[in-house]
Specification:
With 192 residues, the chain is of the alpha/beta class. The chain has a single domain (18-184), classed as 3-Layer(aba) Sandwich (Rossmann fold), CATH 3.40.50.720. It contains seven helices and six strands; from the N terminus they run βαβααβααβαβαβ. It has a six-stranded parallel sheet, with helices on both faces.
Length: 192
C-alpha cells in the first residue's frame, strides 16, 4: 500500500481473530493480517507430516477463527509434482485445523485456500480448479459445523498488496458471507 492509495480496510478489522497460516511466507499476506490486528499461528509443513501431530497442534492453539493456506510456493513452477504438493498441503492443513480446532470449538470458522496464478506453470489451471473444488466440497461437508471455505485465485498481474487485502477481507467477519466459491482476481490496475 502506498501513501497515495486510500486505506480500503479499517484498522483493527481482524482484532482478536486467531488465524493459522500454512505455506505463507513472511511479509505480504502475513504482514497485512498482522497490521489489521490478527494473532497469527504458523502451521509448519513438518507438523503436517503426521496427522495426529497436526491435529494436536491445532487443538493446542484453539480457539482458531481461520486457516489460510497459500499453495503458491508448494506449487513452485508446476508440473505433476507441483500439483500434487500444493493439493496435499491444502488438504492436510484443512483437515488438521478443522478436526483439531474448528469443529470442536462450535463457533464459525473459515478456510481460505490461495491458488497459484494461471501462468505459474504446467498444471496451474488444474491446481486452481482442484483448490476451488476443495473449497466447494468442504463448504458443503463442514457447513453443519459453521465452517466456510473459499478459494482465492490471483490473476497473473495481481500484486501481493492486492492479494493480501482481499485475503484479509475474506477472513474478516464481513467476508464470512462467501462460501463454497472461488474469487478470481484479474488485473487490478487500470488498462493503459
Amino acid at each position: 500500500m502506498t501513501e497515495s492509495e486510500p486505506e480500503l480496510l479499517r484498522p483493527g478489522l481482524l482484532a482478536d481473530r486467531r488465524i493459522a497460516l500454512c505455506g505463507v511466507a513472511g511479509g505480504g499476506i502475513a504482514g497485512r493480517l498482522g497490521e489489521l490486528g490478527a494473532r497469527l499461528e504458523t502451521l509448519g509443513e513438518d507438523t503436517l507430516a503426521d496427522e495426529d501431530q497436526s491435529a494436536a497442534w491445532a487443538r493446542e492453539r484453539a480457539p482458531l477463527d481461520a486457516l489460510l493456506v497459500d499453495a503458491r510456493a508448494r506449487f513452485s513452477d508446476g508440473g505433476p509434482d507441483g500439483l500434487e504438493r500444493s493439493l496435499d498441503l491444502a488438504w492436510r492443513a484443512a483437515r488438521a485445523v478443522a478436526t483439531g480446532a474448528l469443529i470442536e470449538s462450535e463457533r464459525p470458522g473459515r478456510l481460505l485456500l490461495i491458488a497459484p496464478p494461471a501462468n505459474a506453470g504446467e498444471h496451474a489451471q488444474a491446481a486452481r480448479a482442484a483448490l476451488e473444488n476443495l473449497a466447494r466440497t468442504l463448504s458443503v461437508e463442514w457447513a453443519r459445523f459453521g465452517i466456510t471455505a473459499v478459494a482465492l485465485a490471483p490473476g497473473d498481474d495481481t500484486g501481493e498488496p492486492e492479494l493480501a487485502s482481499v485475503a484479509s477481507y475474506l477472513i474478516s467477519p464481513a467476508g464470512a458471507y462467501f462460501s463454497g466459491c472461488v474469487m478470481r482476481l484479474g488485473s487490478l490496475r487500470p488498462a493503459s
